[in-house]
Amino acid sequence: MMRAILLAAGFGTRLRPITDSIPKCLVPIKGSPLLGIWLERLTRAGIGPFLINTHYLHEQVEAFAGSSPHRNVIKLVHETELKGTAGTIIENLDFYENQDGLLIHADNYCLADFEAFMLAHEQRPPECLMTMMTFRTEAPSSCGIVELDARGVVIDFHEKVTNPPGNLANGAVYILSSELIQRFGTDFGTLTDFSTEVLGALTGKIYSYETGQVFVDIGTPKNLIYANAI
Question: At 128, which CATH number?
Answer without folding.
Answer: 3.90.550.10
